[in-house]
Every structure is written in structure tokens, then in C-alpha cells.
Amino acid sequence: MRRDGVIERVAFTKEMKKTHTILVPQMLPIHFDLIAKVFKQDGYNVEVLKTDHKGIAEEGLQSVHNDTCYPALLVIGQFIDALKSGKYDADKTALLITQTGGGCRASNYIYLLRKALVKNGFTNVPVLSLNFSGLEKNSGFKMSLRVFTKIVYSLLYADFLMCISNQVIPYEKTKGDAKALVEKWTEKLLNQMETPLFVRLSRNYKAILNDFSNIEADRSAKKVKVGIVGEIYLKYAPLGNNNLEEYLVSEGAEVVNSGLLDFVMYCVYNRLFDKKIYGTGGMGYLGFKLAAGFLVKKQRQMVKTIKGHGMFTAPADFEKVVTMSQGYVDHGVKMGEGWLLTAEMLELIHSGVQNIISAQPFGCLPNHIIARGMVRKIKDNFPEANIVAVDYDPGASRINQENRIKLMLATAKLNMGVSQLKYEEVPEIHEAEEKVFA
Amino acid sequence: MSYKLGIDVGSTTLKTVVLNDDDKIIEKSYQRHFSKVREMTLEHISGLSSLLRGHELKVAVTGSAGLGISKNARLEFVQEVFATAGAVKRLVPQTDVVIELGGEDAKIIFLKGTLEERMNGTCAGGTGAFIDQMATLLDITADELDALSFGYEKIYPIASRCGVFAKSDIQPLLNQGARKEDIAASIFQAVVDQTITGLAQGREIKGNVLFLGGPLSFLKGLQKRFTNVLGLTQKNAIFPAMAPYFVALGAAYYAEGMPGGASLTFDELVLRLSDTDEAGSRLESMPPLFESRDEYERFQSRHAKMSVLNRDIDTYQGKAYLGIDAGSTTTKVALIDDTGNLLYKHYVGNAGNPLPVLKEQIGRIRKLCGDKTVIASAAVTGYGEELVKAAFGVDFGVVETSAHFTAAKHFNPHVDFIIDIGGQDIKCFTIKDGAVDSVILNEACSSGCGSFIETFAKSLGYGIAEFAELALFAKAPVDLGSRCTVFMNSSVKQAQKDGATVGEISAGLAVSVIKNALYKVIRAKNADELGSNIVVQGGTFLNDAVLRSFERELGRDVIRLSISELMGAYGAALYAMEHEPEASGLITAEKIAAFTHTATPAVCKRCTNKCSLTVNAFSGSEKPFISGNKCELGAGNAKAAGLPNLMRYKYEYISNYPLHDGGRATIGIPLALNMYENLPFWAEFFKSLDCTVVLSAQSSRELYMKGQGTIPSDTVCYPAKLVHGHIEDLIQKGVTTIFYPCMSYNFDEGISDNCFNCPVVAYYPELIKANMGNIEKIRFVSPHLSLNDQKAFINKATGIFKDVIPGLSASEVKAAAKKGYDAYRRFRKDMILQGETALKTAREKGLKVIVIASRPYHVDPEINHGIDNLLTSLGFVIITEDCVSHLYDKPMLNVLNQWTYHARMYNAARFVAQHDNMEMVQLVSFGCGIDAVTTDEVRDILRENGKLYTLLKIDEIKNLGAAKIRMRSLLAAMIERQGVRI
User: Fold this and answer.
1) CB contact under 8 A, B114 and A380
2) Taking a C-beta distance cutoff of 8 angstroms, is the pair A56, A75 a contact?
3) A420, A425, A428, A431: which to substitute to probe chain B, counting the most B Cβ within 10 Å?
């Protein structure tokens, strides 16, 4: 049956590569900046949206079903807001959005975006899907092996820069030093991408480590380490989590955030687990197996270099992370962040980071199971774990979120012995309160 | 040494404690701060001059609204749960658990074992503000509510998750005349339930429990409910007299531990608090509602034009028509002459019971009419429709939507959109071709309704009129967002922190109400979508700030009648006139004087739903009126019996499925989530392997309560929450092996791109495993498997079950699987066949058909609350989506079609689209994220084909009041549309 109401997909043609600006929603500032510029080198005019104001959520609320998850609402709101801002010619603009696939409703973002575009009258704006599972294809948007390689390397470098800069920012003497260095390296790496030099990971890693260790820092005061886990967008995107990382640093904490590589590997590993559980996989299986091997090797190299340098903490080895969720959730749990989220919480605790924020969209379905659903068991097994689940939502006020985080931080400081609070045990029972009156 | 000052700034109250050099309390205070946080603190501290001057002071601030103050005044801040824990450990160290309820916050602290501190997140259900709201609803003070609660006889189920839902549970109870004593106790019970599910989240509350905070210190009835429900003895339920000050005390103790340099003198402290430099983040503000008086006057005069002519009742002679609107919080009466002029009107709060008000009103009208004017006909509409009709012999009951449309049409025949914002509900309908085209009601959520603004006004110490007026010229209205009341409470909290004026908050609320209505309830994109002749109604629109916000949000002028709040009653009066009977049965002047009413609670025994009933007896009437029933059976009407109801059929097929009694192993299966659909498969599979299958009991409130304590996420859907009860039930039955598989994939029915289950259905067994301690005592078999690929399943199954079933062989499994697949196919075929038969019956008898689009577990009466019975009682034939979903191939959609159960709904919508005399009702469980995707698409398919779209959100809420109005409106719309077509 044909339906009049079915939206025709607007194709992104080869010509559009020259004429169109491709907008990308911000998620991981370091990563997306680097990757956008890699696309630029390849002739795509990609721009990462850095807008951050209340109108974005409003646009989202008006454009998609209000019970849609917050990340979708924000990403779509940010696009519509940009198109309406007058800054871009709607006839010469395309939108790029990632598409993961899988049983979570996140796989519907791209459809909801198209509906929102029609609703707002932007019927000529093509939407591009960035995916590695062959979901949607466009003739004008093809990745050569060269670009693909560059993107994989960008991801490695960005993870590396994020990991190291997070360990410097809370301690730097001159605020902004680490950020400036990230920018400097972003440029430097981009220059290398013009040449084959960028593949020299170890050499670059070492240079980055040296640069960051030279930043003047004061490490005399012990700081609380806080790990962030959560739904992938809210875990990273400052627009989504109300600048969570910045807030934590301002509250005197050091942020520990695992890299995007872990999520990529999680997606790859799920294909391997599918074969184990359902006996499916076929031809693709081998490819995924190769990819997994490659990524694990690359991550090991990163870990090894950081350890060799000696000053910074290296990210966890993914093959170790994979084993962490055992006894909690099965590897069959693969919707949303699946078993990875549980594993990440456990990995953080094992590596001494007991304070964890789980950032999740209000009403997120997989989170019921893998985040909230696992906290009790984790706490039973690790009484020192200090986990707070924070819901994000267009209506949730920041003060409420910060209050919850503050509680977690206060407990963290107490556990670390930084807090001034000391308890005197008073043996008297109920009448005790009468004794406190003068 | 120094004095220690603890300042606790909560959401509604300010508490302070001063400790002297010996750590003794020399001063304490507790007062409402009416959002003037900084001023009140300054005032109070300044007043302590003689006590504090000359002493070194150590000061710490705590509380949810304390952060702003501490920043501005550069005072130390301590998180409130943390402060509480400090005070408790010092004063009552034997405490195991602390439960603290504040104005809008609720907290629980587990001190023994693993220290855990939890607060309510984005939900403010079960807090002091909730109790206040409920008291307001009953038109009594919180203290009176407390006193009433001791006289209870029965507890009604009231949704506990959120105040908003509870309200919609309580309101109908009130309107049906339930006893206030019972409601009072039920409200406290709801608070207790909320604390257990929302806060404890699976951790048992036991040992010595310390209760803190205002409500738990002042409300004895609440204390009693907590003690009873938690099974505490007098010794281990601790209610300290200091309860309201504990947090402030904790802050003072915290201040004590701060380094010496942090001391202040009294004057320094006052100076810091006086510092009005309001730094930090503010909520964004919006332009004022009116720039000038002038602008306001133009606005007023434009609306003044729309008024109804009054006619003097004292001089009028002839026929008159009475219309009554027994709304949720107010009762409206209109008496008109034979041309529609208004003879008499009345608008009054009904304090939850419309009968006393109406007794007085009808008496007065009868007197005013005397013998010269005859009331020729009377009609009633609104929540209390049936009760009022029965009590006073009113001739007609009119569906609310019809009443409002009749009224609006009278003033503007071209009206194409009506929005009515009442106390508890928002009703919107679009009019097409002279008939109601679609009805939109706020479901399970009353944010954005009138009583909400009123409650807020009261809590800030203002009357509603004054509160509304303050909004008109407020300079910078705060942007409070457009979601649920609960979230708005937090936003108001933040606005208070930022120092917004009451007027700015009032204006912000007015805008929020409108945004809620537009974007949450109606979900309109722009004004054109609504229509060009918009009539607004309901008492809430008498608030000019609300009306102004609406016009501005739409960018166009709308029509508000001078009798905006009376439109329902006026419409009913017009209806009465149009349908004038030979003789009106309205209660006579003599009888009304002697009218009495008594209400007695009861439980319906007609079916398994076991509805809570209220039996109303009236003087002069022998037949009692029964309310609270979901279907007509309870009310003694049996006309519904016999109509095909496939929802019920499917439930009975599954729940009565013949189970085998075998010797090889005993396997417990919870009848929950994916098991509703797959039970025939597993029953035959295990039968073939000679295993006994034990099914969990039928879902019920009691069953739910059994597992309530182990639910870790309070926002998950009700069908998922019920799983805990089913598992608990199996364990109590003594089953030692429970089989409950994780299923990412469902059957591929060829109508979707993938065949996923939703994440909750797919992985709930994992959550059960990690949260139900009792599971460890038995064998819980929850493998990840897929039934879709028959070969793959057979290959895996032997490995999965070999530990459970002794001596299992691969060939046996193969045969068993075949039996299972056959049974599943038989079941599917039977549903299709039954569907065809039902449709044939409908066709032959000319009956209307409703296709209910939902998930397999929605056939459970505890989950659908008997909506199917309600529909058959209205004369509908019911089939389910899976009866017709196979008739089409893969649909063309604007969404990714990847969930098996959801794909069925799209195809069922296509089926409905192509058949006359048929409509669809989609059931959605509250919290179902996937349905945020499906509902819009199902709606679009239906609308594109000129069909109505009806969505019902269902939750724990038992009451079908709102659903009933929806279904009756749907029926009315179907009939009207047929009339137009002919």
C-alpha cells in the first residue's frame, strides 16, 4: 500500500559535496572537531554545531514527540535551531547524524529527524547517515579507504588527548593551558594528515605526553576522581549533560571518562557475541573479528605508551573491560550501551575510581536494566562504591542534578578523608536530643 | 570557642539552629519562606542580634534552596543528606535507616551496612507538597487531613508514583462520594508506597527507623501508616521531637568541624547576607505579558465583546432549561430561557463532592422559578455526571465533549477548535464538517491545569485572582519549561533561588500551562494546525495571564466567552433544550429539601477485576447508585454480555492454557512480559519433555505489592514492575526452578525490518537476577535465546536445558521444539480465526468495532484495568491488533520498523483505515519509550485515512474515569460522523 504521508528521502548527490555545508551535532568536542576537519580536508564542508541555549530544547520539544529520549530531542532541536537561525542557506545545507542500529529507539533518530524537517518545512535538506553497518547509503557521501583510515586514527588521537587532558585540567596552574595544548595538537595532527606521517602513533603519543607533562601543575591537593558512565550522548555531550565535566572540575574533582574507542569496540564485539549466542554472523563475522583484533592492538599500544611514560593513568584494556560484567549482565544484553555500561562501572571501581555518575536520559529503556538495575548488586559487592544516577530531561532543573552530584561528592570526600566532618558516637538513645538543649 | 549556626533552606521552609560553646541548642526556628529565601534568612538572623553579637560564629548552609544563598553570601554549603547523616550519627547512633520527608524532597539514608543515601530525583511524588496538594483538593488543612485519617475503614489504591497521578485517582473517588476518612488514610498510604518503591528501590527498610522532616513530625496519621506498613514496633520507629530541625542541626555540626579561620562576627554575617549581588545562573526570562496598561485594556475590551445576554429570572415566565457541569473541582450551573439567554448561573468549588452544592443550588433555582417558570428539561455533564443524574433525577447525561461543542457552536457556528482547561483536565477537540473530529485529553497527567496554578498561588500565600493579576505586568516572567508539574516544582525552586518575584513566577506558570497544553497534550506545531476559529473555555482561562499567554504562543486572537467557566453547563442546558422530554424528572422543590446522601464502600464481585465500589444511597430513591465500577456489570447492567471481546479471549486462552503435570522436572514460568505471547510454545515444549509447568498467579495489586520492594527503577513501565510479583509468587509456591529467558529477538512476522523486543522486555530477566535476593535460593534459568530461527534454537536448546532436565537428549529437544512451534502457530491461527468471526458478527449485526492496538501483555486485566469491558459495555466489538496484522505486507513508514509487536500495530492501523464502522484505540503503558516513536506513526496512518486516533495511557491507576469520557466521546464522534456522511 502506498502512503501519501511517506516522506521521500532527499538524496545527497555528488554535486552537493561542493555546494552544501554539512552540519554535525556536537557530542565529543575533541573528537568531533578533529573528525570534522578530516572531512574538510577531503572536500566536505563539515561544520560542528556548538550552539548551547535553551531554544535548542524548545525546538526539540516542538519538533518531536515529547517522550522521545532527551538526546534525540537535543540533537534534532540543535539542527532545527541552526536551520532557523538564518546562518545557513537551507537549500545548501545537509545534516549528518550517526546511526547505530539495534533494538534501542536510538536507531530511530534519523527518522525522527526527517519527520521534524518536514514538520518545519525544510523538505530539501538531505540527511546523511554515518554508520558502519550499511544501514543507509548516499552517492555523494562515500568514504574512501584513505579517509576511513584517517577517521580511525583521529578517533585514537582524540581518545588519547581526552584521556590525558582530563588528568591535567584539574591541576593546571594557568587555567586553559591543557585546552590550548589540545587545540595545538589538533592542528598539528591535521597537518600530519596531509602526509602519511599521521600513522606514527607511538611517536605522536610520546610527544603529546611530554607536552602535557610540561604544563605547570599543582598536584599537592588530593582530588576526588569521578568516573562518568551513561548513555553515550549524555556521557560526553556538554549540551546534554549541562557541562558536567566542567562542573565537576569546578567542584574540585578529576573526571575519568573512557574513550569512544570502547564504544566502537563494544559494537564490534556484539557481532562476535551474536555468533556465540544465536549462531548467526556469516561472512561479516570474519571482518568484525579482524576489526576487533586491530582495535585491541591499537589500544594496547596506547596503554603501553602511557604506562611507559609513567606520569598518567592509562585507560583500561578493553579485553579486561569485556570480562568485567560477568556475574552481572550477560554479553547478550546489547541494546543501548548494553553490558558495556555495567562493565565500565565495575572497571572504574576496580581501578580505584569508586565515585561514579551514571548520566541517563529520563525514562531511558536500556538504562533501567544496565544502569539503575545493576547498582544494587554492585553496591552489595563493593560497599565503597559511590554511584549516583542522574536523569537528564528538558524539564529537569540543573539545581536538582547538581544537588545529587554534590551529595555524591560529599560522600566521596568523606571516603577520601578530605572532609572535615568527624562523628562522635553518643551511646544514649532517644533521649539524646533532649540533652542538646541548653 | 564559637557559636555554630546551621541554616537549612528547604523548598518551602527555612530552619535554623544555633549551638552555643557547649554544643547546646540555644535557638531554633522553623518557618515558611514563601520563596523570599534571602530576605527571610536575613530577617531572622538580624533578629538574633542580642543572642549572637559578640560571639564568633561558624556558619554552614544546607538544603535544596540553600545553594544560592551560600554562594551569594560566601558561606559554607553542605549537602543536606550529608548534613542529616552527620546529625543522626551523633544523636541517634542506633539508627539503621533515616526517612526524611520535606516540602518537595524525600530522602532515605541507609546507615548500617553499606551506607547509601538516596533522594527523590526528578519526581516529587510522596512529599510534603504532595500532601498539601491533596489537602487542598479536599478543601481541608493538612492537620484536618491528619485527623480524618484515623477514622478510616478501607484503603483505596491511589497511584503513588507522582502527585499528579494520585490526584486523578482521588478526584473520581471524591466525585463518587467516597468517605474522606478513607481517602485521607489512602493518601498517606500512597506516600508510604512511594517511599518504598521510589526511594528504597529494592533495599529493605528494617531495624531502627528514624523519621525526620516536617510532615513526618506533624502528621500522626502518616506516622501510623509508616509504622504499620513497615511493620515497626514502637521502639524501633523513632519520631524525634527535633525532627524538623535535624538537618539544620547537622549543618551546625558540620560548621563546627570547619577550620578555625572560617569564623565570622555577627556583623560580618549580616553584611554578607545583605549583599544583594545576585550572581550565578538564572533561569531564562521572557518578555512581560503586557508592556503597558494600555495594551492590557485593549485586550480586555476585545474579550468583553463576547458575552451572553442575561435575563432577569424574577420577571421571566415560561420554560427554562437547566444545565449542570459537575466538574472535578468545581460545580457549574446554568439556567437558560427558550432562546438561550442566561437566567441564572453559579460557579462554586465543590470541595470534592458535588451533591451538597447541587442540593442547595437546585433548591434555590426551584424557589426562584416558583410556579411561573417551568424547568422543562435538565442535563448534566462532567466527572460527576452519573452520580448527579441518579441523585437528582436529571433527565440527560451528556458527554463532556458534546456539551462543550454544543456551547461553542452556539456562539460561533464556524468553530473548528475548542480547548477547555479545567481544574484537573484539559480537553481539546477539533471540529470537522460540523462534528467532533478528534478528542485530545490529558491522560494521567494534570500539569497545565487550573488547580495547579491555584495550588501554587496558595502555597505562595496568594489568592488566585491576586496571583493572576501580579503576572500581568511582571517585568521578566521566568521560563519554567513545559513539562510535568513535578518538574515545574523544581524549576520554581530554582526561580526562587534566583530571586524571581511572585509575579514573575505567576506569569511563568501561566506560560507553562499553555505550553503544556499545546506541546504536551495537543502537540501542535503551529496555530494553523489548530484551526482559525478557536474557542477557549474553562475556569482557567478566566485568568487573563493564561489567556494572554495562549494568544501569544499561538500568535493569533482567540474567543473567550464571558461565561468561559460555565460553557459545559451552558452546553448541557442547550442540549436539554434540544432534547426536551415530555415531562422532566428533575427532583421537585419538596423533595430537594429533604434530600440526603450516604456513601458506603464495597468491592465488586462480578468479575476478576474486583473493582472498588462506592454504594450511594439517596433519600427517596430505592435503587442505590453504584460508582467506581469499570464496566456496566458492577452497576447492575448486563447489556454488555455476549459481545465478542478478543482481548479477554486472548487473556483466557493464555492464562487457562492446559499445563502438563510430569515427573521429570518442575519449571516455574512467570506470566509476564514476553510470556503472554510465548506461553503456548513453552507449555507444549516442556510437556513434550514430560516436565511440570507451574504458572505464576494472575496479576493483581496484591501480587504487585509482593515484589514492590525489589523494583530498582521507579520509572519503568507497570507491566515490567509486575514481573517482580510474579517471580515472588513462584518462589512462594515452592518452585525451585524458574525459567524466564532473555529475548533480544522475537518472531519475524515478515512485516518489519527487524524483529526486536523492546529493551525492557528483552532483558528484564537480567534485572530480576540482580535485584531479587530470593532468586539465589532457587535456580533461575534466564538464557539469551531466540525462537525465530528454529534450527538455531534447536541447536542451542539442549545445552540450555540439560542441567534442568535430567538425561536430556538432542532428539527429544528437537521433537519438543516442533511441538512448541506447532502450538504457537495454532495460537496465532486461532486468534486470526476468532478475529474473523468477531468481525463477521459485527458486520451482520451492524455493530461498531474497536481494534485495540497494544502489546501482548496488555491483555492482562491488571494492566489494562478492564478497558475492554468498558468498551463492550458501550456496545463495541473488540478485536486485538494481532488478529489482522498478518493481512498486509511490510508497511511504508516514516520510522524504523524494527520491533515485532509494534509492527503489528502499524498494520492493524492500516486495516482500520480501510474499514468502515471501525476505529482504533492504542494502549500505551506509561514510561514506554518505544511508543514515543510508534504513537505518532499510528496516528498519522489513521489520520491520513480520515480515521480518529485515540490513545490511552495506562499505569497503576485503576480508575477509568477519564478513559470512559474518551470512549464515550469516541462513540459519539463515530455516530455524528455517520450522520454527516449519510
Assistant:
1) yes
2) no
3) A420
Grid coordinates representing A42 are: 577531503
Most A-contacting residue of B713, B718, B798 (CB-CB within 10 A), to test interface: B713
- Set of cell numbers at residue B352: 470534592
Q: Do B122 and A396 touch (CB under 8 A)?
A: yes
Question: pLDDT tens digit string along B520-542?
Answer: 677 666 667 788 899 998 888 98
Spatial separation of the C-alpha atoms in residues B939 and B947, rounded to whole Å: 9
- Kindly state the cell numbers that stand for B437: 473530529
Is the pLDDT at B981 greater than 50, yes or no?
no
Q: What are the counts of helices (DSSP H) followed by strands (DSSP E) for chain A?
A: 18, 8
Q: Which residue has the higher pLDDT, B115 or B438?
A: B438
Contact B405, B427 (CB under 8 A): no
Q: Is the dihedral of CA B977, B630, B714, B195 positive or negative?
A: positive
Whether residue A224 lies within 8 A of chain B, CB to CB, comes out as no
**Percentage of chain A exceeding pLDDT 90:** 65
For every residue of B347-387, which 3-state class applies, written as one string? EEECCCCHHHHHHHHHHHHHHHHCCCEEEEEEEEECCCHHH
Kindly report the pTM of this predicted structure. Answer: 0.81
**Interface probe with A: pick from B21, B23, B71, B767, most Cβ of A within 10 Å:** B767
pLDDT at B911 over 90: yes
- β-strands B237-238, B209-212 pairing: parallel
Cell of B720: 515490567
The residue whose grid cell reads 521578566 is B476
Rg (alpha carbons) of chain B, rounded to whole number: 30
Q: What is the DSSP string of A27-68?
A: SSHHHHHHHHHHHHHTT-EEEEE---SHHHHHHHHHHS-TTS
Q: Is residue B81 a contact partner of residue A414, using CB atoms and an 8 Å limit?
A: no
CA dist list (Å): A44 to A11, A23, A40, A85: 16, 10, 5, 22
Which among B26, B67, B935 is the nearest to A438, CB-wise?
B26
Contact with chain B for residue A124, Cβ under 8 A: no
Letter string b/e over residues B584-614, b meaning 16 or more CB atoms within 10 A of that residue's CB: bebbeeebbeebebebebeebebeebebbbb
C-alpha angle B620-B625-B628 in degrees, rounded to nearest 5:
155
Which residues in chain B are closer than 8 Å to A425, comparing Cβ atoms?
A: 89-90, 93
Q: Are residues B604 and B611 in contact, defined by beta-carbon separation less than 8 angstroms?
A: yes
Please report the ipTM that was assigned to this predicted complex.
Answer: 0.92
Residue A421 near chain B (CB below 8 Å): yes
Contact A236, A245 (CB under 8 A): no
Q: Is A282 on the interface with B (CB under 8 A)?
A: no
Helix (H, G, I), strand (E, B) or coil at B891: coil
Quote the minimal CA–CA distance from B18 to chain A in Å.
10
d(CA B852, CA B208): 49
Handedness of CA B204, B209, B213, B219 (dihedral sign): positive
Residue A281 in contact with partner chain B when CB distance is under 8 A: no
SS (H, E, C) B570-591: HHHHHHHHHCCCCCCCCCCHHH
